[in-house]
Amino acid sequence: MTDKPEIDFIEGPAPTELTITDLIVGDGPEAVPGGLVDVHYVGVEFDTGEQFDASWDRGQSAKFPLPQLIAAWQQGIPGMKVGGRRQLICPPELAYGPAGGGHRLSGKTLVFVIDLLGV
């Protein structure tokens, strides 16, 4: 996994529940709830397909304690194994909250493709 993933535009209405899809199943240690993760990720808006963030573009992975991340990541990363690539489709309630919440992504359904590099 050395290439930044392309996120294809997803047809149809945005899901109202967190949607988790393993694109590549890893074979390393497993991420646990509340743990520390080292990830590469790309995030796009569901409605437009426009990228809003990507660790790939900064040239370095991101290390986070899961409790500091949006709820969709807290729910969607545990169980993933190092070496894996997972797509999360995150409704606003599990991302940056409802429209008018003060964040530029409030009210938006977000799509992330996350590569788990380490735990």
TrEMBL record:
Residues 34-119 form the PPIase FKBP-type domain. It comes from Aeromicrobium fastidiosum. Belongs to the FKBP-type PPIase family. Its EC number is 5.2.1.8. Keywords: Isomerase, Rotamase. The lineage of its organism: Bacteria, Bacillati, Actinomycetota, Actinomycetes, Propionibacteriales. It comes from the Bacteria. Pfam families: FKBP_C. It catalyses: [protein]-peptidylproline (omega=180) = [protein]-peptidylproline (omega=0). InterPro entries: PPIase_dom_sf, PPIase_FKBP_dom. The keyword Isomerase applies. One of its GO terms (molecular function) is peptidyl-prolyl cis-trans isomerase activity. The keyword Isomerase applies. This is Peptidyl-prolyl cis-trans isomerase. Gene3D superfamilies: 3.10.50.40.
